[in-house]
Amino acid sequence: MTAMHETSDDAVRSQADFVAGVDFSEVMALEEIEPDLFRANFVYDDEFRLFGGQVAAQALLAAGRTVGADRLPHSLHGYFLRSGQCAHPTLFEVHRDRDGRNYSARHVVARQGGQVIFTAVMSFAVDNPGVDNQVIVAPEVASVDECEQIPVPRLFAHEWGLLDQLTPELPFPERFWSRCTSNLGDDPLLHAAAVTYMSDGSSGLGRLHDGSNTTGASLDHAVWFHQPVRADEWLLNVMEPTRTAHGRGLYTGSMFTQDGVLAVSLAQQALFRPLG
């Protein structure tokens, strides 16, 4: 363990030992060390690196703690700089870039062991009236009740309703229902954090695997919240590949409510390189 957290080895639990019993609020619990400095003490033992969606969600939550309750997140743009360790806590430094009449901008730096693993800029806004135009239409798909519902690999307190059968040609689901299985109450910031968490759970690049090239670690991630949304209700996820070039691949995604409203848009760029 690092010096910034006094956790014994016995306290670091294996994910497999307790994944079913973890409430999402436990994953998102942040200790305020001093103003604008938070620590996520949720740790566990895992052979894989720290899930990027967890760091992004915790960063959003930390930033949201520094703005007024009337300001909700509408965008996040983050960069994954180093692999994080699941068995180590994470420090989040929040920088108050600006507080305007309607918008607040925050810059968040996440560190482990003194090194920056993630950085992001986020914006929060008061609710303003405006014309509502939805151009993208939700595809017609099977209802959640008709889908196989499974826990999300490596994600705590989340599940998918799969619409497509996963195969070597499609290793990641591109169309699926998702929701948080914990009771999130009525805190819109916690719901936004849960949406951010699940937004990094899959990839739109899987169908471009050709036996020689494959997707790798995420480089950057962006989320736009078009409206407050409940993450403990089913959301339809639709991922679309855009382009691969220069060892990178980009995909976009949309998250619709069950009545077809586009609630969240996202985009991610990841490594896309030859095998080996």
Q: Can you put this structure into words, describing what you see?
A:
Helix 3 runs antiparallel to helix 4. The protein has a single domain (9-127, 138-274), classed as Beta Barrel (Porin). Mean pLDDT is 92; it is low at 1-12. The chain has 4 helices and 15 strands. The longest helix has 13 residues, at 52-64. It is globular and about 50 Å long. By secondary structure, it is mainly β.
Structural class computed from helices and strand pairing:
mainly beta
The value of Rg in angstroms is 18 Å
- CATH topology tier name: Porin
CATH architecture: Beta Barrel
Overall mean confidence score, pLDDT: 92
The figure for the number of domains is 1
Topology:
Elements (H helix, E strand, L loop, with lengths): L12 E2 H4 L5 H4 L2 E5 L2 E4 L3 E2 L6 H13 L7 E9 L9 E10 L3 E10 L2 E11 L22 E4 L6 E5 L12 E6 L7 H12 L13 E13 L9 E11 L2 E9 L5 E13 L2
Parallel strand pairs: 1-4
Antiparallel strand pairs: 2-3, 3-6, 5-8, 5-12, 6-7, 7-8, 9-10, 10-11, 11-13, 12-15, 13-14, 14-15
Characteristics:
single chain, mainly beta, Porin, 13-stranded antiparallel β-sheet, two-stranded parallel ribbon, 15 strands, disordered N terminus
